[in-house]
Design goal:
Solute-binding_3/MltF_N; Amino acid ABC transporter substrate-binding protein; 9-stranded mixed sheet; 7 helices; D-Maltodextrin-Binding Protein, domain 2; globular; alpha/beta
Amino acid sequence: MGVLTAVPVQSDDIRFYAGSLAPMIQLEPDGKITGFSVDLLKEVLAEAGETFSEDIILKTNWGRAVHDVEVTPGTALLALTLLPDRQDRFKWVGPINEIQIGVFGRKADNLVIRHTDDLFKYRIAMVRNTAPMLMLVNSLPGIEEHIVKVSSIRTQLRILHAGRVDLIIQAVKASRHLMQEEGLETEEFSLLYLVEPTRLYYGFNKTTDDEYITRLQAALDRLKRKAVDGRSRYDRIRAKYFSDENATLGPVQSDGD
């Protein structure tokens, strides 16, 4: 693992860490890393005059990735939520997308979450160093006593399925995608509560060259410019992975988006 240095890291040295967060980041059975964040990165780099190759993206344990990028020059995250306490710890390009965070439980348990204070009644599995965990800890002092920290969404789902915890809090689409990959019946789980959506960015180690960050941000901004048909190049890439249905925040009665 690297250490912080005052020497700016140039664009050719950047390696992007990827953890499973479908459809933003998808780890395919053959080892290939795909998803919206990857496709958008290709276009952003091309627009900025940079080259893309698959070997700049590295699969990693997401529970460790945020810390590793913070302390390792020449690294970045393919998707990172910009939270107030992270603002000065990374350099940012985005936003690249918005994702919905939800509270899941086992349908057979018939749990009801009407307000976040209800979470104090249960044991909750959360992936360490992720936005959902930081948001929960910051908004609900004392909730850490109810949290079981794990390293991945897969582990969250497995221990929820096994009844070792009562709830998980995680990205809705990524959780449902991994339920299917894990061979779990999606009908076994209920989406009990929707949390405020979060915005995702490409997050870079602080030593990354400012000029490189500026060029990538300008490239992304150009991709988002609307054409005469009202759609941008960004919109066309995003449409391959996301629909535009709007979820209602707060308690929900069904398991649908």
